[in-house]
Each structure stands twice: as C-alpha cells, then as structure tokens.
Write a structure and sequence with these properties.
This protein has 1 helix and 8 strands. It has 174 residues and is of the alpha+beta class.
Amino acid sequence: MSGSRMPIRRAYTIIELIAVIVIISTISSVVGSIVSRASAMYADASAQREAQERHSFALERLVRALREAAPLVGSTGTPGLVTGESDRCVFEDGTTFELSGTDLLMTPAGGTSGVLARDISAFELTYVGEDGNTALNFLGGDTLDMTRTIWIHLQSNDADTRTVVYLRASLGAP
C-alpha cells in the first residue's frame, strides 16, 4: 500500500470565495433597493388613501348639509345658506364649515366645533350661477340666492379632492 495515492480533495480558492461574496452582495443590494422602493411606494399610497378617506368623509358631510340648505317650506325664498365665502359657509341655523389653520371645522347649530379633516392646506368653495360655468361675484352685485351649483376643492399634502354640488332647489326664490 505504500504505492497507493490518496485521492486529491479539491478545495475552493480564495479568489473563488471572494467572487461569490461579491456576487451575493451585489444581488442583495439590488433586492434591498427594490424592497426599499416598494415599501416607500406602499407607505405613500397608504397615506394618500387615508387622506382621500378623510377628504371623502368631510366632503360627504358638507355636501349633505349644502343639499339640505334649500329654502324652508313656506318661505319666500330665504336661503338656508346665509354666508358664502371662498373658505367658509354659514347656514341659517348657525351650522358653519370653515378652514381654521390646517383643520376643516364643522360647528353644528348651537354646538361646539369639531374637526372634519386635519392637515388641510386648501379649502375652497366656488358658488356658480344658472349657466353652470360662471362663478358668482358677491362684491360685483351677485347675490347668494343666485347660486345653483357649488364647486368644492379640498387639498392636503397627500390628496387633492374636488366635487360639485348641484343644489336640489336653488337657494333663492324659484
């Protein structure tokens, strides 16, 4: 047995090990950046969806109040909406919607203010006349009872929501 050779065991060289480490680290950095980007996109989409839900809640409440602001039965056209400003509206019963800082507030008749939506950067109401396209100019002689449609714009850092309210009855006399 003195003449038999032991089988040679093949081992990896240091260069092969370094090459494998480089390849694995490159793949992991690419996968890591993809996962990081995907999680950032998911977080952004979640924030936008949550902002959109907050906006939807606030707009639904405001739209309901505006549609119910038609003249009272038996009135001579006295509108349910008595003050119409670009960032505030006040109803005949005292209910108010307004932007205070970055909070959209609703103050029910005889109640205390409650926040409908937070982190609002813009809240705009545009009162539109019979033609459906021309914004009313209250300083130029137009009156609130000429309103037939109200455009509402609500904006925050994460969402921009717009809606149009077609009043069920005009705010003024028929």
